[in-house]
Amino acid sequence: MRNPMIELSDIHLSLVGGSGEVNILRGVDLRVDAGETLAIVGPSGSGKTTTLMIMAGLERPTSGAVRVAGNDLGGMNEDALARFRRTHMGIVFQSFHLVPTMTALENTALPLEFAHIPHARARAAEALAAVGLADRAHHYPAQLSGGEQQRTALARAFAADPKVILADEPTGNLDTETGERIIDHLFAMQRQHGTTLVLITHDRGLAARCHRQVRMADGRIAGAAQPGLTGQAEQAEQANKNEQAGHSGHDEQQAAQTTGQPKGTRP
Ligand SMILES: Nc1ncnc2c1ncn2[C@@H]1O[C@H](COP(=O)(O)OP(=O)(O)O)[C@@H](O)[C@H]1O
Ligand SMILES: [Mg+2]
Description:
Elements: E1 4-17, E2 20-33, E3 37-41, H1 48-55, E4 63-68, E5 71-72, H2 78-88, E6 89-92, H3 104-114, H4 120-130, H5 146-159, E7 164-168, H6 176-193, E8 196-200, H7 204-208, E9 212-217, E10 220-224, H8 231-244, H9 250-259
Helix pairs in contact: 3-4, 3-5, 4-5, 5-6
The protein binds adenosine-5'-diphosphate (ADP) and magnesium ion (MG).
């Protein structure tokens, strides 16, 4: 059996706004195993980013438990959470979140320095080289293309060799070709380090590269997403699952009626 790396148990998040209480997450249960890659898909506003922020301890749930690498995030204060993130997680945001007054190298080294990891600069330089940016190390974000900024963000996320990478639409702001190259880097590093990867994407092709996909809808996990299946195929698959689980499906009832056998008895 594999070890769980991330466990969300019955996560609810409600925020009180101008027009009353808003239920943003309504009972999210999700487990991601060590070394697994998981895509979260689903419509805009369904709670994907919020779920990721809860995994990162950047948002606290109203109720429910969050465990990462066996640690209960709910029991940690803000300082402990910040330390935990530095040593266990890399986060890649859709809009890069680089510090504009720091070079690519300084941006990449920053979390390593915060975590008091020795040889931060040298490690950051290695991480930049791994994403093909050795010759851009001393450029500021404004001097880098969108793709180069996102590769810097990836280098920063991987520099401390975290157990977990959380990526929120990492290619959302990039053209298709640049996005694909960045994703190739992401999966290459994930395989090399055995990192647990959770990524949010609207790109079916990208989602299909993950071991597993879940779809969110309306603040919940709506089910396992199967790319390329039509509604009909999904229904057929559900019927098949029902049958395997021993439920009486519609067809089975009909068969029972025509054979005169009582429902629920199997030969
Ligand atoms: N800080 C907040 N205050 C109020 N509503 C929020 C806040 N953050 C997110 N929401 C709402 O929660 C819902 C889920 O948002 P989000 O997790 O960003 O969805 P997704 O990433 O799937 O598009 C949306 O309806 C959004 O407007
Ligand atoms: Mg989002």
